[in-house]
Amino acid sequence: MAWLVAAQEWIYGTINGYLSAFASNEDWSALLSVMPLGIGFGAIHALTPGHSKTLLASYLVGSPLAYLRGLAVSSVLAATHVGMAVVIALFAAELLTRTLVGAGRAPTVEDISRGLLVLIGIWFVVRAVRGSSGHTHGEREGVAVGVIAGLIPCPLTLFVMVLALSRGVPEAGLAFALAMMIGVGLTLGVVALLAVAGRSALTAAMKKFGTSISVVSRTLDALAGSLLIVFGFRELLL
Which of 15, 84, 109, 235 could hold 153 in an S-S bridge, CB 3.0 to 4.6 Å? Predict the structure, then answer.
């Protein structure tokens, strides 16, 4: 964890330097040359707490989605996560907290997101108890979960956008945001693939011991729903 904190500090300092330099000379070639670094920033940043990795994994453990659809859910989450930060920075800066501890956060939006995830978790549990599948709507359901979880804005993107706006170069902030969205998507994509693989392994193990597909599905629904409820309430109460 220590190296992630150090990497985070280095990322903030490096971005600050690049944006300040671009504001002085507006050299797009220099800015574009560091875009791969921006992708790396996003990927490393997504390893730190607060990027809905646990929520994504919890949902996919209880979902019948295959690998490609799991990647689609993670991509929607990454796009919403970064996009929400861009929208807030451009149009709703008053939603941001200005305290030292909460700088770069939008608590109202975050609480709405977590409350909706708790409701999804409750629905999963109810569905498991009733024995109804609901898996025919898995793809749309996955997109909805990705959007809702992504409503919690990316703090690094908020930092970049606010800094870029203060320097008078919003286009540079948007370019970095795009690069970071790709990086965040790469990390969340790995999480999604591991979650789907874990679900497949767990399902195979349960079937090996004679558990029916229906029982497996209901068990995983209940597990995923319970995890969503626990994590959603935990963040709401913190």
Answer: 84
